[in-house]
Amino acid sequence: MHISAVLLSLPALSFAHFHLLFPPVRGSFDAGSLDQYPCGGQNTVGDRTDFPISGGPIQIDNEHTESKIQVLLALGENPTGDDFVYVMLPTIYAQGPQEFCMGMVGAPAEANVTEGTKGTISVVTSGDSNGGLYQCADVTFVNTPLPEAEYNDNCKNATGIQVSSSNGNANGSSSATSPSSSSDGGAAASPTSTPGAASVNGLGPALAVAVGAMGIAALL
Ligand SMILES: [Cu+2]
């Protein structure tokens, strides 16, 4: 009875899934509820972090060796699931566990964000049998960019991280397919095709944005 309840809970507890490190994550970490949209079961707004409208790092510690990752945004004081209508970072596919920084992720133009706009960022990753895994950060958008040192402190990539383009939603809620390319040797995977998008240094525009500044330097 009591013992079997503990045993049943072990599979969920044995996976850390991923941790959002920057901007600072809302609430406490509960691996067992990380699959609850939109904030992994953390439904109370937390402390707000100033986040540059023009873009800042989204830093995670990923316990999975491969994930689809997407960054969503909701505006307002206390948004609910239906409010996460803006895409800050379209779905990418990242391989390699541990530190992964999505660099210069900013507010999308259509959100009309200005100095002082309050919002909540939801980082979505794949890897749960029910769909996505979610972590949120509550922010106040500001016009001021992060100082370089602070940016770099919050944007780090583990050795061997590879990124390629993807499609669909990271939680699998629409037709999602596996990336069509990969590479080895620690180099960034180049998408074989990115329709309608010019390639920047072999990476699609979203990918150039997706990999942190330090990561791009290391990968090119
Ligand atoms: Cu996991």
Automatic annotation (TrEMBL):
Record's keyword annotation contains Lipoprotein: yes
Location within or outside the cell: Cell membrane
UniProt domain Copper acquisition factor BIM1-like: residue ranges: 16-160
Pfam families, per the entry: BIM1-like_dom
Record membrane topology: Lipid-anchor; GPI-anchor
Cellular component GO terms held in the UniProt record: plasma membrane; side of membrane
Location (main, coarse): membrane
InterPro entries: BIM1-like (IPR046936), BIM1-like_dom (IPR046530)
Protein's UniProt name: Copper acquisition factor BIM1-like domain-containing protein
Keyword field: Cell membrane, Glycoprotein, GPI-anchor, Lipoprotein, Membrane, Signal
Lineage: Eukaryota, Fungi, Dikarya, Ascomycota, Pezizomycotina
Region (Disordered), start-end ranges: 166-196
Signal peptide: 1-16
Keyword Cytoplasm in record: no
